[in-house]
């Protein structure tokens, strides 16, 4: 639920309430990606490279230059190669300025590039090349590239031409907020080819391209000298897609992986509780596509692929749905739970038109029996079992961290991980995206708003940070995210230590965690802040109800899912569902369904003497007990104190009660219910 509420907040929170000013460059939003790097002054490259050093060879025709650019290089490894052949609209000299090819995050749609992750501002199609339309704002940027091999040395090969002269064509590599290397070339109106040696490559390196006049860019290739040392791992294919889809067949496609000699393809469908049924398992494929046949009509399929070099095998790629895109999706209806016990329950819902999969949201509710401090969270990140501080693993730039946390809905923006820790690193700041960690949303129905929220964070910085590095925490009112956000900060060291922050309580809130280095003029630093644990406690009063997201499950097969609740205790649960379909321009989500409360068995209250059919529901300020015959109705607190008693009549019986959690005894049934 967090992501639905706060996706726009990553930049909005980038301002310290305590010390930042508008002119010191701390925690400020960049207008465009190209402003996030140091400017290249006219005639002065960032580093050693001058125009005289750049071997530019001008061909009379574009095709001749393209042929030269595509020449295979013995002894080199191709890190990425993009020919922009998917940008078919428009023509050289007549670009298509009417078709938008980037999303709201400025990522170029996969339909227009060979490898997903290219980004651009004011970029367009030009008949098989990319057109940068504006000399002030246009920018093209590669996906994040691992250029750490070969001591960080790499070569950029590119074809290009200017629309008008004079024009300087700028090329800059960077990682996080730090520029690594760069150059410029005097571009002419003729197609040209250049090979530019660059250095300082890191595991997450981006290369930016822009010009002092409109530019056409084509055939970008990044190469590195082959290393003699045997690799210890191989990357998974980074881009997957399904084409030529019919009822019985489709073509699976994926991006090439450097060093791979083949690929292993899995094709499968999902049944109840996401059980997989395989059509193909580890199907060996030499190329980067395969025609799959023998599909069952009406069944939704998925596929994933692994790369192999004959010795090493990669992790699985992201799975790809095999289904024609839909323009809309229906809204499911949540149905009553079944298989209810103290260990869990089965959530049920109706099918939704065009649904490709469902997301099941389950919430838990806990009522305080007496005044005191309630432990909201104690996240240790112990579920992270891979990576080291020396060789961390990179999470997706915007990622839900459910697989690494005890409770769901922790989210990260440009985070990394090492065993038992989450790291904040600004490796995407060249695109104006900064490292943040978000907690789930915590909700309280309370009679007292005076309680304090205490946050304790175990953290340290690495040796790339300065002694002025600070960790910052904000407690955000989830009901009013436009309000001023209070950031609290603490200077941290290179030794793991605990830091405490205290905030006034909100009814519904979440935490945002980030870092800053006052010795760095840009946002943050090129270093890393490691977080080893986060605990949250809240002062609460007797009768207060604390609720949170218990689980968030993506269900690919069927319209039911079993939810485990091993720590149920006196808590009760509710769930609601959302349907999703694969649309022509990305996924389409339905509205949320109705919410179903799971009313489980209770301890400490004797069963009623009468028998009969009974239904119990809670609403704003009252409960409703529906009977098929007259019977006594008794209501208790969860600690067993009687709060209401009445002789129930046939039909609906309403009982007014303050907000809270109750046990209702009627007609041989004992049920827990919540009143909001």
What does this structure look like?
There is one protein chain. The protein has 676 residues and is an all-beta fold. The chain has 5 domains: 33-225, Galactose-binding domain-like (Jelly Rolls), CATH 2.60.120; 240-322, Immunoglobulin-like (Sandwich); 334-368 and 546-598, Immunoglobulin-like (Sandwich); 373-541, Galactose-binding domain-like (Jelly Rolls), CATH 2.60.120; 614-675, Sandwich (Immunoglobulin-like). It contains 3 helices and 48 strands. Strands 22, 25, 26, 29, 30, 32, 33, 35, 37, 39, 40 and 41 form a 12-stranded antiparallel beta sheet that branches. Strands 1, 2, 4, 5, 7, 10 and 12 form a 7-stranded antiparallel beta sheet that branches. Strands 23, 24, 27, 28, 31, 34 and 36 form a 7-stranded antiparallel beta sheet that branches. The chain starts with a helix and ends with a strand.
